[in-house]
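Supplementary Methods S3. Input chains for the assembly prediction are listed below.
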Amino acid sequence: MSIAVTELGASTLFRFATAGSVDDGKSTLVGRLLHDSKAILADTLDAVARTSAERGFGGASGGIDLALLTDGLRAEREQGITIDVAYRYFATNRRSFILADCPGHVQYTKNTVTGASTADAVVVLIDARKGVLEQTRRHLSVLHLLRVPHVVVAVNKIDLVGFSESVFTEIAADVAAVAESIGLAVPVVVPVSALAGDNVVSVSARTPWYSGPSLLGVLESLPSTDDAESAAAASDSTGSTGLTDSAEPFRFPVQLVLRPQGGLAPGLSADEFRDYRGYAGQIASGSVAVGDAVTLLPTGRSTTVAGIDGPGGVALASAAAPQSVVLRLADELDVARGELIAAAGTVREPSQDLYSSLSWLSPKPLREGSRVLVKHGTRTVQALVRAINGKLDLDSFELEPASSLELNDIGSVQLRLASALPLEPYAAHRRTGAFLVIDPVDGNTLAAGMVGEHPGDSEDERYVI
Amino acid sequence: MSTETIPVVGVGHGGARRGGHRGAGTRPLPEAARLSSLDVLESESIHILREVVAEFERPAMLFSGGKDSVVMLHLATKAFWPGRVPFPVLHVDTGHNFPEVLDFRDRTVERLGLRLVVGSVQEYLDRGELAERADGTRNPLQTAPLLGAIAAEKFDAVFGGGRRDEDKARAKERILSLRDEFGQWDPRNQRPELWNLYNGRHTVGQHVRAFPISNWTELDIWRYIEREGIELPSIYYAHEREVFERDGMWMAVGPYSEPRASEPVVAKTVRYRTVGDMSCTGAVLSSAASVADVVVEVAASTLTERGATRADDRISEAAMEDRKKDGYF
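Predicted structure tokens for the full assembly:
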């Protein structure tokens, strides 16, 4: 699949991650995707072929151990461990892909959460010989919790069950049943052999009973979170959640105030820019147009958008997530980094009480009474851990009592913030519902946080300002 | 204090449903908002540049005159418009640079009104704080002057033009990468990077390396150079040069790379895919004389950029990883 250069200008960007244990053939699948889409260049392939030969590898993939393509660091090769997430890149005529290659078992929810937090889609592997396991339910539950826009299931090793249609149909039905039981949109399911290449990049003749696209074909056609129109159109047909950043109400965390005065870029006229005051940021969700009414948070003041300057000062009539822009406002207001500019009438009263799900990423356990930092949007505030309401049993996905959270736990935690933040439930707002928990002592990231429902949220219209 | 049980977000049928607040702020997306991959990469890079400038006291940007740093600096001019780029640039000069590239560096700094900080490998050699290597390669010697400049200037964040597609060690690198007081990278102890919330917290003596173009590929860089009309040093385009072949690479004849008796000098039409130390950077045979030609050539290439032209990465299978652990970019 060589890339037609003329097509590239229009190509979109799609981010996806993989979930599955090594036994499911995840490394081989990733290697196969990269290899068959011609993302692996000759010198890299030569190096992998040499190592494969030294290890006595042979077989269906032409003597190359595709898993070695994802086996990067010295420590990983020497000790057989895998270190966190690696990012890989490939492109087809339709799309550029960023693949977050997440190692490990789903018990290491840390890795899955990290890779999936930015993903448009996650590919979950199931071994065709084993079918839907408790582990599959765990994968799907965590991805549902993270509100990954699209979940795709690859039933791998279909060659080892004789390309059996009935095996595949049964697994697909089981996947659908699990998805329905946890409230997840039914995923697209593709039969593949990562080792032999069936239905990974091109459609296989050995599964004539399967009429759908290859795995890559699915990934090429799923709407990205950056493309609201196709997402909305596809939400009914592809099992998508329809959850896209650009279809949400407008949210804009202010990164910094651009008031250049004396420090103007060379060539610009001091007269023209003397009074320039713009608010720089990346649109977290939704879209904005000149003339729109907006609300500033946490103060609740309102004004309208007087101008939108794109990168380098291009005047825009409107802009949408995830564009980085500079907004100019109609009124002279003192807005600072950390504030949020939002579409008027769509936000709630900021709150100091944060009810959340935390995915605990640190070996240092979380205890009630701890002091932490919360980074939400462009704002970092102090916080106190008021209560740990329980942690998820990753097998039943029920909340069980707990007084602390350990590495890889997901728990329900109540925090009290030093200042009120414009909190929104993660389930409806993937960008503005996410936050980090940071250790105030050494600065390390302790947890991925997702804002939960605030008690009383069901009568939410009262909170709209 | 409330002790009610709060359901964990979104699990099961009872979890939160989206859509409750979609009414007022939702509108059909304007056509202009259908963003190309380059638009999305540009926005992400600008977001990272602004985050670092907002959260750090003394950032600086590594600038070598190579294509990646040129694109990164161009992104900075767009991120802070109408202000000037709000930090100095730092060049670690191996003393073996291509004169065209040094000239380009100086013109760029002048044009944008920037302050240039130079960390000089030659000065470290002259003072006896570094020793020349037997193979003559100076790229691995850059780490000490780099860390020296960071300490002397008290930089707390340094932007680098590293891309994750360049090398398997860089594929594991975070966008914001914490370095200890020795500048070391510890791949086993990296902070997880979640959503687009970058954690720049550090203690005194530590600093952060920030990689705004992590997610760009070599082809993205060239397509962006074409789209934006960005000027590069002339050695990126086909020109005739006296070269000799060593280890399958075409090395320029010059004061820092002399052919051995067994290596005949020939005139070839070449260009450079990367710009580094003359002693370890090879040229590729190419007739690509314009940006458009280069885009076509890079899209069709069957060799990685570093595999084709960087001798320092051939030292061992983990050469880049080992240098990064020591404090290199």
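The two ends of chain A are 52 Å apart (CA to CA). The CA atoms of residues 280 and 326 of chain A lie 4 Å apart.
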